[in-house]
Amino acid sequence: MARRNPSTATEAALGGLLPAIRLGEALKWLAARVPIHLAVIGLAALWSVPTIALLVSSFRDPRDIATSGWWNAIKSPLDVTLDNYEKVLETEGMARAFFNSLIITVPATVLVILVAALAAYAFAWMQFPGRNVLFLIVVGLLVVPLQMTLIPVLRLYTDLTIDAEVPVIGGRVFGTGSYAGMWLAHTAYGLPFAVYLLRNFFGSLPRDLFESAYLDGASDLRVFFRIVLPLSMPAIAALAIFQFLWVWNDLLIALILLPDPNLAPMTLKITNLVTSFGSQYQLLTAAAFISMALPLFIFFALQRYFIQGILAGAVKG
Amino acid sequence: MIGRPWWTPWLWLAPALILLGVFLVYPTVDTFRRSLLDQRSRDFVGLDNYRFIIENPQPLVSDTHSALLNNVMWLTLFTVLTVGFGLVFAVLAARVRYEAVAKAAIFVPVAISFVAASVIWRFMYEFNSEIGTVNAGVTSLGGDPTAWLQNTGGLQTWLTDTGPDKWPGPLQINNMALILVGVWIWAGFAVVVLSAGLKGISTEILEAARVDGANEWQIFWRIIVPVLSPTIVVVSTTLVIQALKKFDLVWVMTGGRFETDVVATLFFKEAFIVRDFGVGAALAVVLLLWVVPIMVISIRRFQFQEETR
Predict the structure, then answer these.
(1) Three-state secondary-structure class, residue B41
(2) pLDDT single digits (tens) B33-59
(3) Residues 111-170 of B with CB under 8 A from A
(4) Is B151:B173 a contact under the CB 8 Å cutoff?
C-alpha cells in the first residue's frame, strides 16, 4: 500500500492540468495525507530530541552546559569543543573501560552464536527422544529473571575461584573478577533467545538441501559449516547485534561478578561518574556518547540483515 | 535423515545444556531453597521471608508493597504504551516513502545502554528550566516546572497545586517519568518487529476492504490488528518480561529513592546491600511467579507453532 499511494500522488499532482473535479480530488487527498506526514515526522523528531540533546551537549563547554540549555548551542554553531571527550578519555580511565567492554563483549558474542548454533542444529535436524520438551524448557528459560540467578552463581564462582593473574587482559583465571567468568555467564544468559531464534531459522531451511547432502555422504559437521551457517547469515547477524547490545549495555552482571574497578566495563564506569560527580553533565554526556557510539555503528552496519533476521524469528506463526 | 549413533544429538546439545543448567536451572532451584532459609542461608525458617514481603514491616527501609505496586504499574503502563505506540507508528510509517529513516529514528534508543539513556534523561528531566529540556517545554507552554524524578505527587497536584504531596506509588509523577523513559527505549523494538509483521499482510485484502467502502479506522481494527495479533503477542510478551526485569533504569536514575523501587531493585538492595539473602531470594521467587503465566502462554504458542509448521 505504501507503493501505491505515491503513484496516485503523481497523478494528483498533475491535477492542475486536468478538469476541476481532479483538483478537488487532489485537495481531498492532500487533506488525508498531510496529517500522516505530520504525525510520522513529528514523532520521529520528538523521539530524537534526547539523543540530539546528548550529542550537542557533549561538545559544549561545562560553563555553557551549566547555565543554558543545549538548544542555545545550535544558535551559535561554532561554539563547540572537544575538551569533554579528551577529559573523559584521558583522566577518568574511560579508555581502559572501553577496552574492558570490548574484552567482555566480543568473546561473549562469538561464544553464544557458536554454542546456540550447535544446539539449534540438533533441535532442528536431528531426531531424539524428548526433543520438543527439551526445546520448550530452553525457550521457557527466557523468562527467568537474571537477578534471581546471581546469588547462586556468585557463590559458585567464589568456590571455584582460581586466583592467578591472566597476562595481557588482566583479571583472575576464573571466578569473581575474571573475564572468563563474565564470558560464560553472558553466553549462558544469551542462550535461550539465541537457541530460539536460530532453531526457527534453521528449521525453515529447505529440507531437500539436507537430504541431498546426506545422500552424498556429507557428515553433520560438513552440512553445518558448509550449508547451515552460510545460509543463516541474516539470522546470525541479527543475533550478533542483539547479543552485542545486551552484553555491551549490561550493568547488573558486571556489578556483581566483576568487583575489580580496573576491569570494569564502560556501563559501570559511567554509573560511577553519575553517582560520584553528581551533576557534572559535561563529562557524563561525553562518556555516554562514547559508550553508545560503537553499538550504533554496528547496528547501522548490519541493519539490513537485522530486519530480515527478526522476520525469521519472531513474525513466523 | 541419516543414521546416527544415539548420542550424536546430545554431543551437539551438550555445551548449551551444561551452560543453561549451571547458570539458569540450578540457580532457579537453589533460589527456591534459599527463600525458605534465614538471612545467612543456615536455618530453615519456612515461609517467614514471604511473610516479610506480605506484611511489609519496614516500609521506611524497604517498602515491599510500594515495589510490588510499582511493578504492576510498569507491567501494564509500559507494555500498553510501548505496543500501542509501536503499532500506530508502524502503520503510519508504512504509508510514507521515508519509512526506513523514520523507523531508524525510533530505533536509535534501542542501541543505547540503559545507563547512557539514564544519563540523557536525568539531563532532560533537570529541574532548572534553563537547562532541563522537559521543563523548558513545560514553561514555554505556560506551566510550572517540576522535579520529575523526585516528585511523588500525582498529576493533579502538579497541574492544580491542590491535593496531597505523596500519591500511591503507581500514580506518582516520578514513576510515570521513569516509565516514559522505558517506552522511549523500547518503542523501536516494537516498531521494527510490528512493521515486519505488517509487511506480511497482503495488499489485496486491504484493497478489497477499501473497495467495499471500509474506512481507515475500520481497516485498522478489523483487519490489521487481528492479522497482526500473533506478532502483537510476541512483542507484548517480550515487553512484559522486560518490564518485570526492569532494574538498570530505576537503579541509575533514582536508585529506588522517592518511592520508585521495583521488585528487582529491592531484591538487589536486600541481597547485596542489606545482605539478607533469605528475603532477597523470596523477592526473586516472587518475580519468577509473575512470569509463570507468561511461560504457560508462550509454551502453548510454541506447541501450536510446532504443529502447524
Answers:
(1) coil
(2) 888 888 777 788 888 888 888 877 776
(3) 111-124, 130-133, 136
(4) yes
Question: Chain B contact for A221, CB < 8 A?
Answer: no
Do A159 and A198 belong together in one domain?
yes
Contacts of B287 in chain A (CB under 8 A): 145, 147-148
* Contact (Cβ atoms closer than 8 angstroms) between residue B264 and residue B107: no
Q: How far apart are the first and last CA of chain B?
A: 18
Q: Determine the structural domain holding residue A131 and report its residue range.
A: 88-315
Same domain, A106 and A70: no
pLDDT band of A307, cuts 50, 70, 90 = low
- Work out how many domains chain A is built from and give that number: 2
Looking at the fold, whether A280 and A135 belong to one and the same domain comes out as yes
- B10/A128 touch (CB, cutoff 8 Å), yes or no: yes
pLDDT beneath 70, residues of chain B? 1-2, 59-62, 115, 155-158, 160-170, 200, 202, 295, 298-299, 301-309
Model confidence at A314, pLDDT cuts 50, 70, 90, reads very low
Q: Are residues A145 and A227 in the same domain?
A: yes
Contacting residues of B for A288, CB less than 8 Å apart: 115-116, 119-120
At A46-102, the pLDDT tens digits run: 998 888 888 887 887 777 766 777 777 766 666 677 877 877 777 567 778 888 999
Q: What are A97's three cell numbers?
A: 573501560
Domains of chain B: 68-259 (1.10.3720.10)
Q: Using the beta-carbon criterion (under 8 Å), do A69 and B133 form an inter-chain contact?
A: yes
Angle, CA of B68, B71 and B73, to the nearest 5°: 115
Write out pLDDT tens, residues A238-265. 778 778 888 988 888 898 888 888 888 8
- How many CB atoms are located within 10 Å of the residue A215 CB? 9
Q: State the Cα torsion B47-B49-B54-B59 to the nearest 10°.
A: 160
Residues A59 and A173 placed together within one structural domain of the fold? no
Kindly state whether residues A138 and A282 are assigned to the same domain. Answer: yes
Please check whether residues A143 and A40 belong to one and the same domain: no
The three grid cell numbers given for residue A255, joined into one nine-digit string: 556489578
The SS3 call for residue B151 is coil
Interface test with A, best of B10, B12, B98, B150 (most A CBs within 10 A): B12
Whole-complex ipTM: 0.79
DSSP states of B208-231 as a string?
HHHHTT--HHHHIIIIIHHHHHHH
Cβ contacts (< 8 Å) between A125 and chain B: which residues? 1
Last residue of a domain, one of A66, A81, A96: A81
CATH number at residue A206: 1.10.3720.10
Residue A237 and residue A103 share a domain = yes
Check residue A308 and give its pLDDT: 47
Chain-chain contact of B196 with A136 (C-beta, under 8 angstroms): no
B192–A contact, CB cutoff 8 A: yes
Q: What's residue B305's pLDDT?
A: 59
Mean predicted confidence (pLDDT) in A294-314: 62
